[in-house]
Design goal:
Blueprint lengths: L16 H9 L6 H5 L5 E4 L14 E15 L5 E8 L10 E6 L4 H4 L5 E7 L1 E3 L2 E5 L2 E5 L5 H4 L3 E4 L8 H13 L18 H9 L4 H32 L10 H9 L6 H15 L5 E6 L5 H14 L3 E5 L3 H15 L6 E4 L4 E2 L27 E4 L13 E6 L7 H8 L6 E6 L5 H4 L7 E5 L9 E6 L4 H13 L3 E5 L14 H11 L5 E4 L5 H13 L4 E4 L12 E7 L6 H8 L9 E6 L5 H12 L3 H12 L24 H15 L9 H15 L5
Parallel strand pairs: 4-7, 10-16, 10-17, 11-14, 11-15, 12-14, 15-16, 18-23, 19-21, 19-22, 20-21, 22-23
Antiparallel strand pairs: 1-9, 2-3, 2-5, 3-4, 5-8, 6-7, 12-13
Length: 699
């Protein structure tokens, strides 16, 4: 029998054809290989179904029964409710009967009729008349010869699309995997203790035991990690091959900056400054990640790096994700660097300032200015937003790129700015502590520095979770604190009310809070406001003219108002833990005690426990690990923008040892002479991801 080419169209698989091929294309399945990697999202153990008489409330089970009754009615509000009663072959009591209920699923009455046999999967709810499942997953069983595919086994449950049933896709997979028409080539030297791909794919789709499924998953997850680490290893190798040109080092500016500070840098800051200084002295471009918890002093370290670059006769660019943060960085740099005679320019989507060349004209192409008579170059530093990426900013002598809150940007944006210079040094910063697994993936091509020490005098922030029923006490507390001269943030997740989302909106609550505090100045801030309006309210809040700032999460990064000591976050359950930690970091920046109040009505015990993590710890790394466990990597640090292979099976929380092993194996493999010539499929995959780096363009 002829083997099927893994790169051939999916329609060539027996049982697929053109029509089903079009349906599978909706799942991004276009080739035979895509179908092979379309792995089950979960499994049901249908070797022995659970007895209802032995089940417990809240338990999620798989159960088989025949429809005895089916009816569709409408409840108050017009909602359609469809109920069926399922019974097993032998009924001895009411506990053997299961009621299944769905709301507003209009096609079910025609599909689920009396006499049909179902397998249902869902959570049991105890009621007065027996057991109920609400919106269970189900599969209609038919009298045919496919029982061994769907029943009496560990049964795969696949991701589907409309028009494609589990039974049809499962049959296609079963016949395809077992046909012997597909060859499973090893595309790299896999470890001997892992199962082969010829063993892994059949066991991943139709395992004969949970142990076999576990071994198959381990092999396929390792493959993902190995490819990912090969991509990162090639990036690191490519970076080390680049050579930057630097003038003789001048650290006079950097040292003068540190000397004029009113405080001494922490030991952690000095350690990281030394690491950066050594990077800037060598011909290989720096690619360094600086991570530090909220308030650890990353900006001081960044300014030190900027001044080292300026001292070498080069330009420096600092890119921030929001105009508010860019403007604040610009104000701080101008204040710190004015005594040194250094001008700082600002370039955002709505503003440009500081580019004046002395005759009233704006010149965005800042050429390298020579150091004459020991004077620093003028106009060598620019702070901006995404606007720096585009043609309006040109920098022929760009020597250092600093990117703040790196997780807000994609790799393409980082590369686009870096390519404005000739192999500039790169320093990326984040106040979102990065779990070690993400450090080995999203930032696996960077050297890492950690600021693990807070400046002295920082006050501990007292955090408390409260329900909406306790809001009156929260407002009373804010009023008392404002009367003492303090300021407060009140944060909401939405700008305007939505019919689809049950959450308060900043526009509506701003009006309500003004009514609550008629004698207190209340300001409004959100991302849809015009830049000048945002500037005005932030200036009023910084200067104390506004005492309560009602805002969205636009204040999440970089806003620094030492007199703000209260942070109230409503609908807190709608925010990720890392984002809550960032928001909390806007307070506690002065000498007074600070308070963060998380207000919400989580729907489950698990959601409350998640918020209570914020009460229990201020350690950003513990919070980040928990956030990674709960939300997954895609929601945290833009892994989908990283240019890395996607992870279908690999779990960055549970598979750290596997990831670490793959990293070491990939490094050793690529160091072997002509390693990729022996494995052309792997070489092709790596070339595809290497193209990602070449996509970054300017303009």
């Amino acid at each position: 029998m002829a083997l099927i080419d893994p790169e051939s169209e999916i329609a060539s698989v027996p049982g697929v054809g053109v029509q089903r091929g079009a349906l599978l294309a909706k799942l991004e399945l276009r080739t035979v290989l895509d179908l092979l990697y379309h792995l089950p999202r979960r499994y049901e153990d249908r070797r022995q179904f659970r007895e209802l008489s032995q089940a417990e409330a809240g338990e999620t089970i798989c159960w088989r029964g025949k429809i005895q009754n089916a009816k569709a009615t409408r409840w108050r509000g017009g909602r359609l409710v469809f109920e069926i009663t399922l019974t097993p072959p032998t009924v001895t009591s009411a506990k053997d009967i299961l009621c299944c209920r769905w709301f507003n699923v209009y096609y079910l009455p025609k599909m689920l009729t009396v006499g049909k046999e179902l397998v249902v999967y869902g959570k049991l709810v105890a009621g007065k008349k027996g057991w109920t499942m609400v919106h269970p997953e189900f599969e209609v069983l038919e009298e045919d010869d496919e029982t061994l595919i769907h029943l009496n086994r560990i049964t795969p449950i696949y991701p589907l699309t409309e028009g494609l049933s589990q039974r049809v896709l499962r049959r296609i997979m079963y016949e395809f995997i077992g046909s012997g028409q597909f060859e499973f080539p090893e595309y790299y030297p896999a470890p001997k203790d892992l199962v082969t791909l010829s063993e892994a794919f059949p066991a991943a789709h139709f395992p004969i035991s949970w142990e076999a499924q576990h071994k198959a998953r381990e092999r396929l997850a390792y493959d993902e990690f190995f490819l990912l680490q090969c991509v990162l290893a090639q990036r690191r190798q490519s970076q080390k091959q680049a050579v930057k040109k630097r003038e003789t080092e001048h650290d006079r500016l950097a040292l003068a900056f540190l000397k004029q500070l009113s405080f001494s840098p922490t030991g952690a800051q000095r350690r990281v400054m030394d690491e950066i200084r050594r990077d800037l002295e060598i011909p290989v471009p720096m690619n360094r990640l600086l991570q530090g918890d909220v308030g650890a002093g990353k900006t001081i370290v960044a300014v030190y790096a900027i001044l080292l670059a300026v001292g070498q006769g080069k330009q420096a660019a600092l890119m921030a994700p929001t105009e508010i943060l860019a403007e604040q960085h610009c104000l701080n740099l101008r204040r710190w660097l004015a005594p040194l005679g250094i001008r700082v320019a600002l370039l955002t989507g709505s503003k440009q300032s500081g580019f004046d060349d002395g005759d009233g004209t704006a010149e965005l192409a800042l050429g390298s200015l020579p150091m004459e008579a020991g004077a620093p170059p003028i106009g060598s530093i620019v702070v901006g937003t995404h606007a720096l990426i585009y043609d309006s900013y040109a920098a022929d002598q760009l020597g250092l790129v600093v990117i703040d809150e790196q997780h807000k940007f994609g790799v393409l944006q980082r590369l686009a700015l870096a390519r404005k210079g000739s192999h500039p040094d790169i320093l990326v910063m984040t106040a979102t502590p990065i779990p070690r697994t993400l450090g080995m993936t999203v930032y696996g091509d960077l050297d890492v520095s950690v600021l693990d020490e807070l400046p002295p005098g920082r006050q501990k922030i007292i955090t408390a979770c409260r329900s909406t029923k306790e809001l009156d006490k929260v407002w009373k507390f804010i009023g008392e604190q404002v009367a003492l001269g303090r300021q407060a943030y009140v944060v909401y997740s939405l700008v305007e009310e939505s019919e689809k989302v049950e959450a308060k909106a900043v526009q509506t609550e701003y009006e309500a809070i003004k009514t609550l505090f008629p004698h207190i100045s209340v300001g409004l801030l959100h991302g849809r406001m015009k830049p000048e309006a945002k500037d005005a309210v932030m200036t009023d809040f910084r200067t104390g003219k506004v005492s309560i700032l009602v805002s969205t999460s636009v204040i999440e990064v970089g806003v620094d108002v030492p007199n703000a000591t209260i942070m109230v976050i409503e609908n807190a359950e709608r925010f990720g833990l890392a984002q809550l930690h960032q928001l909390r970091g806007r307070i506690g920046r002065g000498s007074e005690k600070s308070y963060c109040v998380l207000v919400g009505e989580p729907k489950s015990k698990e959601s409350w426990q998640r918020l209570q993590i914020m009460e229990a710890t201020s350690d950003g790394f513990k919070i980040a690990e928990e956030d990674l466990r709960i939300r997954g990597p895609g929601n945290l640090l833009g892994i989908e923008q990283s240019g890395l292979p996607p992870l279908r099976l690999g779990n960055l929380v549970e598979d750290f040892d596997l990831l670490q092993r793959a990293r070491g194996d990939a490094d050793l493999f690529l160091k072997q002479p002509k390693a990729l010539e022996k494995f052309p499929r792997l070489a092709t995959q790596l070339k595809q991801f290497a193209k990602f780096n070449s996509l970054a363009t300017v303009g």
